[in-house]
Write a structure and sequence with these properties.
The complex is a heterodimer. Chain A is built from no helices and eleven strands. By secondary structure, chain A is mostly beta strands. In chain A, the strands form two sheets. In chain A, strands 2, 4, 5, 6, 9, 10 and 11 form a seven-stranded mixed sheet that branches. In chain A, a hairpin with a 3-residue loop joins strand 4 and strand 5. By secondary structure, chain B is mostly beta strands. Helix content of chain B is about 0%, strand content about 55%. In chain B, strands 2, 4, 5, 9, 10 and 11 form a six-stranded mixed sheet that branches. In chain B, strand 7 and strand 8 form a beta hairpin. The radius of gyration of chain B is 13 Å and the shape is globular. Chain B starts with a strand and ends with a strand. Classes of the chains: A mainly beta, B mainly beta. At the A-B interface, strand 5 of A face strand 4, strand 5 and strand 9 of B.
Chain lengths: ~110, ~110
Amino acid sequence: NAGVTQTPKFRVLKTGQSMTLLCAQDMNHEYMYWYRQDPGMGLRLIHYSVGEGTTAKGEVPDGYNVSRLKKQNFLLGLESAAPSQTSVYFCASSYTTQGGDTQYFGPGTRLTVL
Amino acid sequence: AQSVTQLGSHVSVSEGALVLLRCNYSSSVPPYLFWYVQYPNQGLQLLLKYTSAATLVKGINGFEAEFKKSETSFHLTKPSAHMSDAAEYFCAVSYTGGFKTIFGAGTRLFVKA
């Protein structure tokens, strides 16, 4: 049982390049989330998904796109990377969103945009 | 709207001393409250959570937190700090029917030998 995994762990991009971050979970969770973590700002929600084939915007969605073609996978795309997108990205999943449900986090992807 | 405020971005204690990390929340509906811990270069993991049962919640590694509705607080405590407690701690709030969990900015705990 691997829990939540993220690929890649590290990446360096040049401004304007594109990339996709992959998140996979093996807990059969319906709900998945992408966050970014920046110093002093905690975690901010980028996009989330309440089930296969559905996605919704979070707090800071601009410059990102997502897809949830399979229940176990949630992809985060950067179409044209900018230095402001330098951050650590975390994927999380939960069984429900009924208030007190725990979110399970992946180990993170550290992205640097030059 | 729901929000979380963590008082102190950095807290330093000596090994064996009391740990107190402060969290205040704002919520127009009954909240669910969480503390997550993040060790260096790792993702967040749940430390404990309040889900409207007992107001004093015990978590892993000797941590506990008390929900005080009148003070809108959910402070995290541990009687005796250990070097292995050095990490970043996040308070978070969610609510029934909401799809999102709101995280505080985090408090980094340093433990001195």
